[in-house]
Amino acid sequence: MSERTSNRIFDTVNITFVSLFVIFCLAPFVHTIAVSLSSNRAITSGEVTLWPVEFNWDAYVQVFSDQSMLNSLGFTVILTLATTLLCMLFTIAAAYPLTKGRLKGRKFFMYMIIITMFFSGGIIPEYLLIRDLNMINTVWALILPGLVSPFNLIILISFFKNIPPSLEESAEIDGSSFINTLLRIVLPLSLPVMATLALFYAVGRWNGFQDALMYVTDPQIYPLQLKLFQMVQNNMVTELTQMEGANRAALTPEALKAATVIFATVPILCVYPWLQKYFVSGVMLGAVKG
Amino acid sequence: MTKAKSTLTQMNGYGELNKRTTYFKRYWQLYALLSLPILYFLIFRYGPMYGVQIAFKDFNLFQGINGSEWIGLEAFREVFAMNDFYITLRNTFMLNFLDLIVSFPAPIILAIMLYEIRSARFKRISQTILYIPHFISWVIIGGIVYQLFGTQSGMINGLLQGMGFEAIPFLTEKNSWLVTYLFTGVWQSAGWGTILYLAALTGVNKELFEAADVDGASRLRKIWHITLPSIKPTIVTLLILNLGRMVSIGFDRPYIIGNTAVREYSDVLSTFVYRIGLESGQYTLATVVGLFQAVVGLIFILGSNYISKKTTGDGIL
């Protein structure tokens, strides 16, 4: 066998395996989309795999006419934007001073932050704290506890440190204050890493579930994940009661559940591909020092 | 002599003071920037650490953290006598260990395959898709899992039954459930896990491959002798760090994928803390379990970091 043919065989096999893995990643979504667009009869009789059967939009019409679902979506979008903005402000405010070697107390503050990466009080003391601060059932319980991720902070510090110091020094000689230098020189040079961190914070808030489960009982401020969870739990009840032969008709139709899942996934899929080229470098920075 | 000395100290003192004022004049903005984040860390990260003392107190909500009575290690004795504690501890190790066996090699193989792809376009598109699951919440994954693995209308069981097999209770029988749990882990993390390996591979000297070509080495031989050795340090470091996280387990995945029918396997330390603490209101006991997990977790991480530094010269601290 010549070298060229063996190379070609290798490439074909390799591409086939990678493609299979890509399909493996996509298939669950494709199936869910197919279910969301199929009739309930086709779903319950098990005819739907990767293509809609008896195509219809009913489930989506139902999702979009469910006012509580739309409220939850609107609330989660605003919550995610506000959280991301605050997290970024706090993370930048912490990172920039900590890159200044001459700052007294810098080491102390660094240790103070790094310790929290390896030890925490646990969820019960955290819950009691939020309770003592009267934040139960307020949006603050969903925003404040995760304001600065030490991991993200360290990514930002290592990025800031890589900016050539001569750029900042020349500004400082011209009499620019630190805040001015930060705004005029450091931040404009850090847009890729800031996009990465904003994505991490936004995805974290969008996907965040445990804090909502712990701190929120008021349906007015149900994040989407909590609303979805109740539906998933409903699925579980279905699964458990099926064994006892309970009546399925009374339960949420499969198509509606699938449509809701897609409804909550699409916003992430809209944002993420645009930021992909940035976050790879961000993850690498974090891996070195994180 | 004495006079001269005192003038000197005076001058020194004045100089110090002067230096200090110019220092603060120059640096106050940095402290102003730091103040709010530091306040955040004090309240929301160190506040709960202060609250950990309720592990040693007979805590009740009305008396609060400071008002409750000290009971020493009584709560620890109670927890260590609980059967459920050992079950959840065992499950935590078991799920993490199985996850490591199943989910750890997948990104390595995938990264090597991606590295071998010559078409930049195909590679980029594959990567975009492979990273997606990492950004999907466990709640959504849970929803999809029920669509796929349910016994009645789940797709997998539909296909199995179509081929004449019996339906497998992927969600309600503990051993089958383990398969579901591990499967979702691979699905969610394999693609994202390739990032670090691919990063390590960008540093490989291309001349090595050219030299191997001259020697007539096959692609598989090149993978075995060049590609794999160049990501070996990354593999070892990640493996050790993963071993260091054996006691820590996220809450969302076991809580959402798990259910009462498979609790014997799905109940882990994080869900146990939630269940006895927030659902049953046994705050002291739950805090004890949380503290146990935090301390043992810290020992594991420090230990693995030490080993990692010894073997690869690379750690996280």
UniProtKB/TrEMBL annotation, chain A:
The chain crosses the membrane at residues 12-34, 73-96, 108-128, 140-160, 181-203, 255-275. Residues 73-273 form the ABC transmembrane type-1 domain. Gene3D superfamilies: MetI-like (1.10.3720.10). InterPro entries: MetI-like (IPR000515), MetI-like_sf (IPR035906). It comes from the Bacteria. It is found in: Cell membrane. Belongs to the binding-protein-dependent transport system permease family. This is Protein LplC.
From TrEMBL, chain B:
Keywords: Cell membrane, Membrane, Transmembrane, Transmembrane helix, Transport. The chain crosses the membrane at residues 28-47, 93-117, 129-149, 178-202, 283-302. Coiled coil: none annotated. It is found in: Cell membrane. It is a multi-pass membrane protein. InterPro entries: MetI-like, MetI-like_sf, UgpAE/MalFG_permease. Belongs to the binding-protein-dependent transport system permease family. This is Protein LplB. It comes from Saccharibacillus kuerlensis.
